[in-house]
Design goal:
This protein has about 300 residues and is mainly alpha-helical. Helices cover about 65% and strands about 0% of the residues. α2 crosses α7 (about 115-130). The protein is elongated and about 60 Å long. Residues about 70-100 have low confidence and may be disordered. This is PKP2 protein.
């Protein structure tokens, strides 16, 4: 567990170690099957996998990167754009987000397991079944790592979490735990998921009222809570930016007074949370059909 946080070279060596990742996954599967999701060894295994999933898309061996990006490259070429990232147009951006991963292997080995749906479901199972804070945080953190980039892998993992594995109820429950680091990581994961335009309505329907309910009445004093508040505001920004319906959801959940109070906090005017709330307010005001409701 300590070695897995030793930086890029350490992660590379451990990912390449034959049988290591497979053994960790095997152990966790056994613990879940035996209804023992809270033992220390399971926590250690999940924390190692969490660390090995950090910067995974960037650090993948060339052979994996080529197989993952080939479909994306073809789509870009069809649109007469140079390479994978040659355009910023919204149309192509959405196409890139909807590009699926190559078909999953039924029996993944080694590094392939790190983004496979089997392990994604294991993380979601531990989030739902474990009461150990470090195990919950590491499971959420691994999913956060896997959904952090802008390539096809993060968006495919996001679709698996939201649509294929029905992971939102478990993540939503983590918004209401007392442990601040677990809550922060759950919000960060939702922020990553909410960047995927095709999932925004599902996420808003499932968790937007909960996100509003855990927003504080003003900018919190401690750094972790302040960071969590900022992440909630940016998640709400993603969910409401292009959807008047979702903005109305925020309004009906009584979120507007909270967002205004956070944005106007005098003592922390330049805090992350105040800035994020201001960005959210600016975006909400772009829905002109809601102006009369806002004023009320």
């Amino acid at each position: 567990r300590n070695m897995s946080s030793a930086g890029p070279e350490g992660r590379k060596k451990m990912r390449e170690c034959e049988g290591l990742i497979d053994s960790l996954v095997y152990y966790i599967q056994g613990a879940i099957a035996d209804h023992e999701p809270n033992d220390k060894a399971t926590e250690n295994c999940v924390c190692i996998l969490h660390n090995l999933s950090y910067q995974l898309e960037i650090e993948l061996p060339e052979s994996y990167a080529q197989s993952i990006y080939v479909q994306r490259r073809n789509i870009s070429n069809n649109d007469k754009t140079p390479g994978c990232f040659g355009t910023r147009s919204r149309k192509v951006k959405e196409k890139q987000q909807d590009t699926p991963l190559p078909e999953e292997k039924s029996n993944p080995k080694g590094v392939e397991s790190l983004w496979h749906s089997t392990l994604i479901r294991i993380y979601l199972s531990l989030i739902a079944k474990s009461t150990r804070n470090y195990t919950q945080e590491a499971s959420l953190g691994a999913l956060q790592n896997l959904t952090a980039g802008t390539g096809p892998m993060p968006f495919a993992v996001a679709r698996t979490v939201v649509q294929k594995a029905n992971g939102l109820p478990g993540i939503r429950a983590m918004l209401h735990v007392s442990h601040p680091a677990v809550k922060r990581t759950a919000v960060s994961l939702l922020r990553n998921l909410s960047r995927n335009t095709s999932l925004q309505n599902d996420i808003a329907r499932e968790v937007l009222p909960d996100l509003v309910s855990v927003l504080p009445e003003c900018v919190p004093g401690c750094d972790v809570a302040c960071e969590t508040t900022a992440s909630i505001c940016y998640t709400l920004f993603n969910l409401t930016q292009s959807s008047s319906h979702n903005a109305r959801l925020l309004l009906s959940a009584h979120g507007l007074p909270k967002v205004i109070a956070i944005s106007m906090n005098d003592s922390n005017m330049f805090s992350k949370a105040s800035r994020a709330a201001s960005v959210l307010l600016y975006s909400l005001w772009s829905h002109t059909d809601l102006h009369s409701a806002y004023k009320k």
